[in-house]
Amino acid sequence: MEDKNTQTATKNLLENAKSVIIILPPDPGKDIVAAGISLHLALKESGKVSQIGCGSEVHVDNQIEGVSEIADTIGSRNLIISFDYKEEDLDKVDYDVRDDGKFYLMIKPKSGAPVPDISGVKYSYSGADADLVITLGVNSLEELGKIYADEKTFLDGVDTVSLNNSLRPAAFTGHSYHKNLGSFCELVAGLIEGLKFKINPPIAQNLLSGIYTATNNLTGSHLSADTFSAVAFLMRSGASIPQKQLQMPKFSQAPFFEFPGAAPVEENIPLPEEESIPIPSDWNKPKIFRVGDNQLN
Q1: Residue-wise DSSP of 219-288
Q2: How large is the angle between the packed helices 201-214 and 225-236, nearest 10 degrees?
Q3: Cβ(70)–Cβ(24) under 8 Å?
Q4: The CATH number of the domain where 145 resides is what?
Q5: Mind listing the pLDDT tens digit for each residue in 113-152?
Q6: Other C-beta atoms within 10 Å of 36: how many?
Q7: How many domains does the chain have?
Q8: Pairing state of beta strands 103-109 and 49-54?
Q9: Which of 63, 154, 172, 211 is least surrounded by CB atoms within 10 angstroms?
Q10: Backbone angles phi, psi at 16, to 5 degrees
Q11: Rounded to an integer, what distance in angstroms lies between the CA atom of residue 23 and that of residue 74?
């Protein structure tokens, strides 16, 4: 069971940090993405500087508010300019900061060498810097893949909080917020509520939709009173219950009713054959009813 003292220390780190970096594991599912981006947005709403990164492409629908803010790097201090060029063609590199306040970088090729092609110039950042790092759903920093490889020195030294919806301890940090829950969105919703971070309706909708997806519309095996408490908190914060997708039933054969506009279904139903039975002679005579007689002739 997670130590309450550990949870308290973790919350103190989150409250006191002015800048935070959230890192998702490679190939994250919708639950982790919705939880991570919602925490990122809640931190920004609360006045903190926040970044969120993932070492792989994130394949989720655009219905998650803020998903476009997930970057493939967590570096933000150093600007990197890259392009294809051979070192033997280079004469020198120089720079100048002019009176207009602009920075000029000069790439001078050797005489007779080709000029660098600006169409292939790419820009990126490196050099991560933050007071606190938050990881979701990883048991070791190596699981972060490219991001750990790029920022190993920073990540090995910065205060790190591990968030996980299982009680398995994290070996890479002493600060963790682990609970045995059905979804990461429920975990983050409880954390945001406990820390009293600001939350707007789109953030709340992210988390509530994630809870419904991860628990199969609140029918999973990990439901608890805390789950419904999180749902109530998110609905009070402006979220609405996700609408189920209604599907028309499929019939193996044509139904006995028709939808408006549907083409009529023609069926050849055989009629029963007539039997040749002799008709009694008195059936052709008129029938007379006499009052009091109660007989037909």
Answers
A1: TSTT--HHHHHHHHHHHHTT--PPPPPP-PPP-SS--SS--TTPPPPP--PPPPPPP--PPPGGGGS---
A2: 150
A3: yes
A4: 3.90.1640.10
A5: 788 887 778 766 666 689 999 999 999 999 999 999 989 9
A6: 32
A7: 2
A8: unpaired
A9: 63
A10: -90, -20
A11: 8
